[in-house]
Amino acid sequence: MEVPGLAHSITSPLSPCEGMIKDLSLDAIQLCERDGSKSQDGSISEMEELPVPQNIKISNITCDSFKICWDMEARSKERITHYFIDLNKKENKNSNKFKHKDVPTKLVAKAVPLPMTVRGHWFLSPRTEYTVAVQTASKQTDGDYAVSEWSEIIEFCTADYSTVHLNQLLEKAEVIAGRMLRFSVFYRNQNKEYFDHAREAQGNRMLPSVKDNSGSHGSPISGKLEGIFFSCNTEFNTGKPPQDSPYGRHRFEVQADSLFNPDTNLYFGDFYCMYTAYHYVILVLAPKGSRGDEFCKQRLPALDITDNRFLTCKQDGEGGGLVFHHAQDVILEVIYTEPVDLASGTVAEISGHQLMSLSTVNAKKDPSCKTCNISVGR
């Protein structure tokens, strides 16, 4: 039985989220410290007879929900009316000591059959480590609670966005993608040393590396997918790549059909912004049957390469070669999952500036943006 979110029956004046969730059988959400057995107003009293939850098990973990169950001794089991579930983000040893700590969240749930589902995007975030402990409680006629000792503390980590969540992001990105502009090359900017290393130590190849943590916190490709970032956006007035870049003054350019063709699969990876008006869409290009392709098939929404709002590859209607278009109103970050030989393109120095402020390396998504966020943990 689900206990997540909040229910129509939530009446606690301390609940900061009253009425936000409809599929919950939670009685209340209270904010309190787990140390000690009494609340600040003294309304919770301790009674040894109530059984302490044992062998807590967490299962069915998603980015914003989990199932929880435990064992209990039979003594006084019939007196249990509620469960207190204490949920906290696991403390990060490297966190800023001057920042306010996350407020602990105590879920007060009716004693429903186990396992119960705890769900709530306002207190659960994807890819986040949490600790959880449980008390059993008996509500008294005067409104006070008799409680057991706290259980042992269990740790778990929430999951990445599922394809359901990614499809929600995809739909939001489609709304602002804008009209399609023609392009002919993919390009990658880096410093001179990067390309020198590729020539001297990597067999004249750029090699895939693990994607950083930029973008949505729940993205299933961050820290997991290996690839090489490329751009394809062009300037509206010239139809060519811009001469400025945040990543370096040397640019590798390759004809678009070398990376994107009918033997390539295209996937939607993410949609985000960085507290600016610019919005970014991450796409993945994976040669069919490659290791990157197999990774993406299980985790990302696939796009039709000839018909989507972001990046297309079509046969020229006049019987010529392939024609390529990109969305005008979003900045595309294209990840190619395989090594790329420098001999397949050219490397040259650009005439513009290196605009470091526009770099998206490990960039954090703006959690308040209504354009690119969905109603799950950010």
UniProtKB/TrEMBL annotation:
GO cellular component: cytoplasm
Xref: CDD domains: FN3
Protein name in the entry: Fibronectin type-III domain-containing protein
Protein family per UniProt: Belongs to the PHYHIP family.
One Pfam family matching this protein: PHYHIP_C
Origin: domain of life: Eukaryota
Signal sequence, renumbered to the chain: none
Free-text function comment from the UniProt entry: May play a role in the development of the central system.
Domain Fibronectin type-III: 52-161
PANTHER family linked to this entry: PHYTANOYL-COA HYDROXYLASE-INTERACTING PROTEIN-LIKE, PROTEIN CBG15099
